[in-house]
Amino acid sequence: MKVRTSLLINSLLVWTIMGATVPWASAAGAPVSAPAPSAVTDIPGVIARVSASVVAIVGKPEVKGNNRDNRFNLAHGTGIVVKADGWILTNAHVVKEMDNLTVITVDGKQYAGTVTNMDEESDLALVKIAATGLSPAKFAANYSIKVGETDVAIGTPISVSLRNSASAGIISGVDRSVSSTYRLIQTDASINPGNSGGPLVNLKGEVVFTYGKVNRPYWGAELEESWAAVVGLPTKEPLRIIRVEPGSPAEKAGFQSGDVIYSVNQASFTTLVEFNELLKSYLPGQTVEIMVQSGGDLIKRKVTFGKQP
């Protein structure tokens, strides 16, 4: 991972284009009140409030060869406290291949960590430590992110000795999707190796984005977007089905390769990112109506989502 002048982030966590980009639930709803002008300069206060919720994560990477016994062969990242009784949220790529997980809180205490849940598609993981009385982060509710807002990233850059380092910047852009399944946020706050898993906060000291259970709806059809959509140009061309998995909800509903889809419950889309963002509004077991062109006819088909295999 390298320092970039412009970074893409999403969800509760921070990561770079060079790193494993993490897509997750996007923010929605009405914007909250803007901070008072005096609060804009209170970055030290924001850092002080949030730092208690930020932890360093260190361990030995799972590697083959002679480096396994090298005590200096360590990997590290960052996490954020989500529950006071020892629940830590981080990036899946931080802990995926890490042995002897150790979580270090802001006061320097060390705890053995266990990965309890991991979702590689969203690059999120939960780590449990035997601790109580921790300080959970405050999450922004119904927060609408605006380009130009000041933000602060807190993490563990370069080495564990630099844990809880902070950098400030602005929101450079929203609704980005560079090589990602979902929409991302762009920021120019400086990020270094080890920042992965740390929070990006607004000047109210709130972690940007909501937190929820990863429970994706599954329908079993692979889609293809237009060339214009691939290169990021505005387009009105619809998505096309290029493969339907045998036995999937899509096959049971009558979808087939070559079908062109226009909308889900009357909500339209022209890119894969827009389609994936739309699906986050639904859960397995829910039924939707999809407008599709099949065999030259424009028809509506109902499909009941299953659980992601």
Automatic annotation (TrEMBL):
GO terms for cellular component: periplasmic space. It comes from the Bacteria. This is Serine protease Do. Residues 220-298 form the PDZ domain. GO terms for molecular function: serine-type endopeptidase activity. One of its GO terms (biological process) is protein quality control for misfolded or incompletely synthesized proteins. Residues 1-27 form the signal peptide. The keyword Transmembrane helix does not apply. Keywords: Hydrolase, Protease, Serine protease, Signal. Belongs to the peptidase S1C family.
